[in-house]
Amino acid sequence: MSRGETYVFAAYLALFAVVLGWLVIHAFKIARLSRELTELVELARRRDGKAPAPDAAEARVAGQ
Amino acid sequence: MSGYLGDVAALARTSLLLELRQRDTVPAMVLFVVSALVVFRFSLPADASDLAALGLLWIAIVFTAILALTRAFVAERDQRVLDGLVLATADRSAIWLGKVAGVLAFLVLAELVALPAFALFFAPIGWETVAAVALANVGIAAVGTLLAAMAAASRARELLLPLLFLPLVIPVVVGGVGASVEPDPGRYLAFLGLYDLIFAILAWASFDYVVAE
Amino acid sequence: MRNNLGPALAVGALLVLGTGLVLALFWAPEDADQGFSQRIFYVHVPIALTAYACFGWGAWKALRLLWTREARYDLESYTAIHMGTIFGVLVLVTGSIWAKVSWGIWWSWSERQLVLFLVLFLFYSAYFMLRYSTDPGPRRANMSAVYALFGVVLIPVSFLAIRLAENFIHPVVFTRDGPQMAGSMFFVFCVCLAGMLLLAAALYQAELAGKRLDARVRELREALA
After folding, report:
1. pLDDT at C1
2. Were both Cys, which of B167, B172, C139, C154 would link to C122 (CB 3.0–4.6 Å)?
3. B182, C167: Cβ pair inside 8 Å?
4. A48: which DSSP letter?
């Protein structure tokens, strides 16, 4: 690969790296939000006095 | 209208009277700018041109201004006086204008020493430099006062002001150095005037939002 | 419609930018002077224009905040400026790479676009410092909005300053061919520009949705606690 080609690909790769980096950060964010929501669902169920039933919700999602 | 100007005059008078009594900001600015010029003298190589030295003059002015601006809202914050001022004045931009007048006065006083000192240590300065300094003072005071109010509201205070201020003051430095150095100073002086006009209006119009809750 | 905007933008970005980049790398004609390295132009300039668009969008949302005092505009303004800063850093990176391959140096003070973005990068970095060092609330929102407005005004003023400064900062000027582009080059440029804008919009939407979800989860936690 000529010198020019190397630099061009480096520039395009920089763009790609930024977008992927953003994706990584957001993947962690989504994971954290999922965890927090699970916690809060637990909290809500306990407040209502019902027994925690995490499998029921997952079964509903899986069944679709 | 006299209410507005009355507020402005009162605020400007307060800043100046406070300074007259405490006598801390202006002497510090004067000492700082002279010390800075001496440090610059040691940092320039022997064969450096007068033009390079003029660039350093502008750096000295900018950082001296930061000293003055850091103090602009300190007294108010310490004594929660700013909250009272905000409630008392009908148009908060009067606070800004009053503070700007105070900062301008301090800058001029410091420059009355700085410019002759520069002429003594480095090279004589022409009318274009003086004109550029005068125009730059307006822009620096206008933008700096607004940013000082922002910095005063944050937790970082004195740390934040230079960070906010320096990018915005780059055009002023360009205009000032250009007017001092270039054979045709008119363009640069006009640019400084343009900067002053645009940013003074913007700062005047938006100060209300910066101090309000 | 609101919920479909994010995915729609993402799909649009994928299709348009994907096409644009393929065209830029393989279909666009080779530049007579610069050769293959000229193709960096197809990412560098669209990214720069997209950054300006983000800062402008952020300033518009800031204006809306000051006008209506609705809190949601603060988040939207902040996210737009965040996007603009990310793209701004990309401008500096791609511009640097282009400078290196064109002139053998990583930085040139005679490249006006690069210098402008350096100044803007400093300015908007200070924006984040301002936000991080102030307690959340209407005061922070207002100050951020005012600062964002100062930013868009600074863009043309700085550009003018940089042009004026060229006389005494750097006498040696490196030049590149201006926009005398062949029609096909211009077409590829436009596709890449559209794609880049769609990418920014998609990232903006996704980031905004993420921040709003964050806020609502926090609200839920407070309601349950």
Report:
1. 47
2. B167
3. yes
4. H
- Respond yes or no on whether ipTM tops 0.90: no
Whether C54 and C84 have beta carbons less than 8 Å apart is answered as yes
- The Cα–Cα gap between C181 and B14 comes to 61
The mean per-residue pLDDT over the stretch B79-96 comes to: 74
Into how many domains does chain B fold? 1
CA dihedral for B195, B95, B156, C209, sign (positive or negative)? negative
Q: CB distance C149–B153 less than 8 Å?
A: no
Sign of CA dihedral B66, B72, B75, B78: negative
CA–CA dist B169, B64 (Å, integer): 13
Q: Which of B103, B114, B102, B88 is nearest to B33 (CA)?
A: B114
Q: Which domain holds residue B14?
A: 3-211
For residue C44, list chain A residues with Cβ-Cβ distance below 8 A.
Answer: 11
Of the candidates C122, C157, C165, the beta carbon closest to that of B195 is on C157
Residue B103 scores a pLDDT above 70: yes
**Averaged pLDDT for residues C66-89:** 95
User: Of residues C199 and A9, which shows the higher confidence score?
Assistant: C199
Integer Rg of chain A from CA: 22
- Closest chain C CA to residue A22: C203
Min mean pLDDT across C66-75, C90-99, C167-176, C197-206 is at C167-176
pLDDT at residue B1 in the model: 47
Rounded to 5 degrees, what angle do the CA atoms C19, C21, C26 make? 95
3-state secondary structure chain C: CHHHHHHHHHHHHHHHHHHHHHHHHHHCCCECCCEHHHHHHHHHHHHHHHHHHHHHHHHHHHHHHHHHCCCHHHHHHHHHHHHHHHHHHHHHHHHHHHHHHHHCCCCCCCCHHHHHHHHHHHHHHHHHHHHHCCCCCHHHHHHHHHHHHHHHHHHHHHHHHHHHHHHHHCCCCCCCCCCCCCHHHHHHHHHHHHHHHHHHHHHHHHHHHHHHHHHHHHHHHHHHC
Number of Cβ pairs < 8 A linking chain A and chain C: 72
- Predicted model pTM: 0.89
